[in-house]
Design brief:
This is GTP cyclohydrolase 1. It contains 14 helices and 7 strands. It has about 325 residues and is α+β, with helices and mostly antiparallel strands. The chain has a 5-stranded mixed beta sheet, with helices on both faces. A two-stranded antiparallel ribbon has the order 1-4. The protein binds zinc ion. The site of zinc ion has 5 residues, from loops.
């Protein structure tokens, strides 16, 4: 007993008297009770020495998100996407999984609060959904650094030309490294964009609660496995919670994520999560159909095959009827 007491003391401290309103009102940590105060304060001393009364869990759980609290349907633990049209399932499931990969953030709440909503920051408001040193550099570089980047790509392309048996100095290829470098930077310009700038406040409280769909959005992206394009169409639907997003923003969000190195499954999911995150609608559904050049031009060479991915969140995930309405409206459910 003493041992478990210690363990819970370090993980889920009870609200201390000086805690103030926030902690006390939001969560009932009833299981530990007041007998733990002394121990809490001890623990506090070792970790956050300056404020003995401050709830220690705030040190280890900074990202606890208020958006996880309210309208989450509490009873269901795992939502299962049952869309029949997908070749690649589990997009929606990734969301709770992502949450599960952050056990340190919510050790004890995870059983109480289950939300289909993506935990922040799945969506990169600063344009860094898969942050790496390179992404950050690219976002913030000045002109001189840009030049250096361009030259490095050019050198690489020149090497590539040599390696495939070409003469990079023949007339037709002379400017190819430069052209390719610029093209590649364009194909991946999404790394320099971010959701916040794109949405730019274009969210309107319209009291609208019916399904909104933008379909047949042309998408050009780059397969991250082969660095060749995959192209197709994306359909985005959502059911607002009063607020609607400027309709042109949906293709732009799709464009931002498409202009990165991608796999189609993740692209679909990222767009859905982004719309969910910025708009907080009742649900989002994204379906993408596309043709992968890496499949068409090489490998299995199935030139007519289409890959369909989908990601449904919120009410689209919960309600088959809503999902089917969406699918029939975009013409996939035929
Ligand atoms: Zn590929």
């Amino acid at each position: 007993m003493a041992r478990s007491d210690t363990a819970s003391g370090s993980e889920s401290p009870a609200p201390t008297p000086v805690n103030g309103e926030r902690n006390g009102s939001k969560k009932n940590k009833t299981r530990n009770g007041s007998k733990k105060h002394a121990r809490d304060n001890e623990t506090n001393g070792s970790i956050g020495p300056s404020h003995p009364g401050e709830r220690r869990s705030s040190v280890s759980k900074p990202a606890r998100d208020f958006r996880d609290m309210p309208e989450a349907p509490p009873p269901k633990k795992k939502k299962r996407k049952t869309s029949t049209t997908t070749t690649k399932p589990d997009n929606a499931l990734v969301i709770p999984t992502t949450k599960d990969t952050l056990p340190a953030l919510q050790p004890e709440e995870s059983t109480e609060q289950v939300s289909t909503r993506s935990p922040s920051p799945v969506i990169d408001f600063d344009g860094l959904s898969r942050p790496s040193l390179g992404t950050r550099k690219r976002l913030e570089e000045d002109d001189a650094q840009k030049e250096i980047r361009l030259n490095r790509i050019k050198d690489a392309v020149r090497t590539l030309l040599e390696c495939v048996g070409e003469d990079p100095d023949r007339e037709g290829l002379l400017a190819t490294p430069d052209r390719y470098a610029k093209a590649m930077l364009y194909f991946t310009k999404g790394y320099q964009e971010n959701v916040r700038d794109i949405v730019n406040g274009a969210i309107f409280q319209e009291g609208h609660n019916e399904m909104v769909i933008v379909k047949d959005i042309e998408v050009f992206s780059m397969c991250e496995h082969h660095l060749v394009p995959f192209t197709g169409k994306m359909h985005i639907g959502y059911i607002p919670s009063n607020a609607v997003i400027g309709i042109s923003k949906l293709p732009r969000i799709a464009e931002m994520f498409a202009r990165r190195l991608q796999v189609q499954e993740r692209l679909t999911k990222e767009v859905a999560n982004a719309v969910m995150e910025v708009l907080k609608p009742q649900g989002v559904a994204v379906v993408m159909e596309s043709s992968h050049l890496c499949m068409v031009m090489r490998g299995v060479q199935k030139t007519t095959s289409t890959t369909i991915t989908s990601c449904v969140i919120g009410c689209f995930e919960r309600k088959e009827k809503t999902r089917n309405e969406f699918l029939s409206l975009i013409g996939v459910n035929r």
